[in-house]
Amino acid sequence: MSRITEKDVDYVAGLARLRLDEEARARLVREMDAILGYMDKLNELNTEGVEPMMHALEMTNVFRDDVVGESMPRDLALETAPQHDGAYFIVPPIMDPEES
Amino acid sequence: MSAWHERRAHEIAGAVRTGAVSAVEVTRAFLERIDAVDGEVNAYTEVWRAEAEARAAAIDAKRDRGEALGALAGVPVALKALLCTTEGTTDCSSRMLKGFRSPYDATVVRRLRDADAVLPGKVNMDEFAMGSSTENSAIKKTRNPWNLDCVPGGSSGGSAASVAADECAFALGSDTGGSIRQPAALCGCVGVKPTYGRVSRYGLVAFASSLDQIGPLTKDVEDAALALNIICGRDPMDATSAAVPVPDFTASLTGEVKGLRIGLPKEYFTSQLGSEMREKVERAIAVLEEQGAETVEVSLPHTDHGVAVYYIISPAEASANLARFDGVRYGFRHPDAETVDDLYVLTKSDGFGTEVQRRIMLGTYVLSSGYYDAYYLKAQKVRALIRQDFDRAFAQCDVLVTPTSPTPAFRFGEKTDDPLEMYLSDIYTISANLAAIPGISVPCGLTSAGLPAGLQIMARHFDEATMLRVAHCYEQHRGFDPGKPPIARGAA
Amino acid sequence: MEYEAVIGMEVHVELDTRSKVFCACSTDFHAEPNTNVCPICLGMPGTLPMLNREVVNKSVAVGLALNCTIARWSKMDRKNYFYPDLPKNYQISQYDLPLCHGGYLDIETEGGTRRIGITRAHMEEDPARNVHGMMGGGSGVDFNRSGVPLLEIVTEPDFRSAQQVYDYLAELKQILLYLGASDCNMEEGSLRAEANISVRPKGSERLGTKTEVKNVASFTQTMRAVEYEIKRQIRVLSEGGTIVQETRGWDAEKGISFSQRKKESAHDYRYFPEPDLAPVVVDEAWERRVRDALPELPAARRKRFREAHGLSAYDARVITATRGMADYFEAVVRVGADPKKAANWMMGDLQALCTETRVEVDACAVCPEDLAAMIGLIENGTISGKIAKEVLAAMFETGKHPKEIVEEKGLVQISDSSELEGIVQQVLDANPNQVEQFRSGKDQVKGYLMGQVMKASRGKANPKLASQILEKALRA
Ligand SMILES: [Mg+2]
Ligand SMILES: [Zn+2]
């Protein structure tokens, strides 16, 4: 039985903001199923009591001081923008509520 | 005497510093070389001709004024297309960043400039460093200088090919699961992935943040040591760069391996390894034994699980790292986007290539609600086990010696149909990234088909010095000259 | 059926640091759009965050003030969602291991003291600011706010009324101001409150479906929005309807909340540990350093002012409204002024002068020692309370010592009996009718005559002495 269905692929594509055509969607069902099937290997291992390795190195408390440095000139910040008005980055109208 | 473009970086820097040659002369030699062979190799995505010459002239002027020159005086260094530079563009070989001009320089780029290196341009890669053959570039197809029908490896394929074809003195690449060492092996050059945290990642466009590391691809171990001397060290812009002192790596190349213990992980010498590759690696081990090193068999029991762990963690991190490419502040924006949602969906679907989209999908899936524990958390736990394997092994030995890649360079299209098979070709290199330890690949001969094979040496965290010492000793005593690829022998 | 509201609060506080949480850009709110930006807070490719130590310090201070446990080991996480104000399309926040957790705050509210549980307080970065209706109908994004440090403070669902919510917010704000952790400026978005509201039949243990009300501009509006939402939910339920879990906005002009529903999938945030940042370890020594530097908090200070200085509960609350005001009060008392009189002058005339000129009490020209000296002049009879008002106004304007003003303006009280006798006689001579009325039994006329004495002395007559002399003269 396939663990990945078209519905799963659609859900994930929605989260990732990708649009898949029919062919890509069918291919991804197949490929993700094979790859995630391969991941089952990990279930062979008993990992009870193992601390997950969240960071590559065991460093803690790496900080910067609260000192203001130089910001960029606005022209330079906006230079790479696909659309701007000289002061703001411009995007299509936003309608959803914000979060933080 | 050989032409300047064939020389090692340390020879060039020495000659430029003493005035035996001008930086401009060296730079022109390399630019001519690029003109001569890059039409076939296709390593460069852009060449900064005028800028490189101007920079070389400035270095000469500096010397003429009697000022001391840096350790890379006049040395042309090619940059993987994911290192941010204010010069030229930083496109990561993706349609998404085509024409993107970074407003800042990566820390490594700044360090190269400060050492008086010359930057001839950017070299090709798999899009956003995802791939093992450079076939995922949206820009061009880079060929292996040893056989133009073969891939150069990846994702730093352009870096490796440019070094092998003498189109630069050395190159910088990045290694997330083998992306420096594997193409170095496939193109017959030296490639180093330093310890995670050794080199600042600031300005390296991130693929998988807990695995990525910048390193050099060079023509010999001495050049690798020289390059590491310049690029290593803590950077206040990168919280994961370690405050560990950087030794003089050049001074660590003593030629001595007497009494060093070399671990041979049995899991790396299974039937997966072709007999020809095995024979090359075994001969290399014999060379080190002749020099007085002891060998000991060790076990890295979770080796077999590395690929699964890697292909969970790296796409998960990548799915977040690549979310920022949305057409708001930089890069590609789909012209038809009329709503914010369209802006994301159209831009991403059109801007990213197939492999990148596949990894974003995988990474999003393993982090999504209900699957995090089964995939991502599980992978982090097994990653801890893999790291423990190495800790145990390094209690028994000083370095580990293995093959770099199970196979030499393969033909274009040979593995593109089956992503899982392509992923499995990373088995020998992935573990070093997962364990955050350093690894180097050194050429260890040519196969019967005339393709290079690579020997991998791994060491303890931050012990690049010992790793380089062993690699250098092997290089000095391997008893053969790896020679030049056909294209570099003047076939072009 | 009788319903009961169950409310939990989420407050986002912008911490008052000089630079942003992950880069060196200024946090100045008033800058021109997109001028306090750099590659990091714009989410440029290849950039990395570097945590501002002061953000941890301030967060720990707030956590301690809210009686939280400070995590010895905590980490940053990525919260993934797409929104144009989010430069990386993930927010660096804290998920399962917040810096502070398990605290409480006691608030004075309707029906006495109420303990509000603090679930957690975690560090995160503020998104950018969107402006709407730009060219071509699009929206604009200003990244100045992107990366300003935030502390998100989440309570248990311990509120039962809008008033309790208001009192919590007021107390929280006061604490944050005392700590210097935030300027709490709501108009500038430094403090943003969201309420999670549900209702249930009274006596029921089960929680009802909640709605979230956000983007409300002031505490008063928050209280109104919560009140409205409670009533709305009760109405929906009593009419047999069901509550939809959703985010609701508040229209302050119309006084109604409205649905801002979002897509379902938007809530799968795919949190995972931020690989670019090292974990934060606040050991006992660090925690102690922050604890030792904590100022006396408003509640403790109110209590002490009542007990040690005999202030009423009301006076204590007003005098401790700001740390500066409370410090000022203590400085006045320290040099010997009577605490109640000091409080009265501060809450009365001095506060009025300050309000009029928009200056804080502790920053006005009258230093605490001078206010104490002025009170002393009243007590030793040099000036009357009435004259003191004039003296204080002059002190406020010029910053001069009260004695100097009294001397310059010749405001010294007349306590010389013979001089006062003369004035009284003048008044009696000028008002024969009133004198007659008094003598025929109309006692209240004395008040009028006393007023005339004060007027004739231009307010300088010692009221007590003058009254005695007047009495004596009338009875004579
Ligand atoms: Mg939040
Ligand atoms: Zn910034």
In short:
The complex is a heterotrimer of chains A (100), B (492) and C (476). Chain A has 100 residues and is mainly alpha-helical.
Write the SSE topology:
The complex is a heterotrimer of chains A (100), B (492) and C (476).
Chain A lengths: L5 H11 L5 H18 L23 E2 L9 H6 L9 E3 L9
Chain B lengths: L8 H10 L4 H19 L2 E4 L1 H16 L11 E5 L26 H8 L3 E6 L33 H8 L5 E6 L5 H7 L2 E4 L19 E6 L2 H11 L29 E5 L9 H16 L3 E5 L7 H16 L18 H12 L2 H14 L4 H25 L2 E5 L15 H6 L2 H9 L3 E8 L5 E8 L4 H14 L15
Parallel strand pairs in B: 2-3, 2-4, 7-8, 7-9
Antiparallel strand pairs in B: 1-3, 4-6, 5-6, 5-10, 9-11, 10-11
Chain C lengths: L2 E12 L36 E2 H13 L3 E2 L2 E2 L2 E4 L9 E4 L6 E10 L2 E14 L3 E3 L7 E4 L6 E7 L6 H18 L11 E11 L9 E3 L5 H20 L7 E6 L4 E4 L12 E2 L6 E2 L2 H9 L5 H12 L3 H7 L3 H12 L4 H19 L10 H12 L5 H14 L3 H7 L8 H14 L1 H8 L5 H12 L6 H13 L1
Parallel strand pairs in C: 13-14
Antiparallel strand pairs in C: 1-11, 1-12, 3-7, 4-17, 5-6, 5-16, 7-8, 8-11, 9-10, 12-13, 14-15
The structure holds magnesium ion and zinc ion.
Description:
The complex is a heterotrimer of chains A (100), B (492) and C (476). Chain A is mostly helical and 100 residues long. Chain A has a domain at 6-43: Histone, subunit A (Orthogonal Bundle). Helix content of chain A is 35%, strand content 5%. Chain A has 3 helices and 2 strands. Chain A has helices at residues 6-16, 22-39, 74-79, and strands at residues 63-64, 89-91. The longest helix of chain A is centred in the N-terminal third of the chain and has 18 residues, at 22-39. Chain A is flat. By secondary structure, chain B is of the alpha/beta class. Chain B has 2 domains: 4-301 and 389-489, Amidase signature (AS) enzymes (Alpha-Beta Complex); 305-381, no CATH class. Helix content of chain B is 39%, strand content 13%. Chain B is built from 15 helices and 11 strands. In chain B, helix 9 packs across helix 11 (354-367). The two termini of chain B are 20 Å apart. Chain C has 476 residues and is α+β, with helices and mostly antiparallel strands. Chain C has 3 domains: 3-286, no CATH class; 296-409, no CATH class; 417-474, Orthogonal Bundle (Arc Repressor Mutant, subunit A), CATH 1.10.10. Chain C has helices at residues 53-65, 162-179, 219-238, 284-292, 298-309, 313-319, 323-334, 339-357, 368-379, 385-398, 402-408, 417-430, 432-439, 445-456, 463-475; strands at 3-14, 51-52, 69-70, 73-74, 77-80, 90-93, 100-109, 112-125, 129-131, 139-142, 149-155, 191-201, 211-213, 246-251, 256-259, 272-273, 280-281. In chain C, the strands form 4 sheets. Chain C has a 9-stranded mixed beta sheet with strand order 3-7-8-11-1-12-13-14-15. In chain C, strands 6-5-16 form a 3-stranded antiparallel beta sheet, with no helix packed on it. In chain C, strand 13, helix 3 (219-238) and strand 14 (246-251) form a beta-alpha-beta unit. In chain C, helix 7 crosses helix 9 (368-379). The mean pLDDT of chain C is 93. Chains in contact: A-B, A-C, B-C. Strand 2 (89-91) of chain A pairs antiparallel with strand 10 of chain C, so a sheet runs across the interface. Bound molecules: magnesium ion and zinc ion. Residues 93, 124, 152 of chain C line the site of magnesium ion (MG).
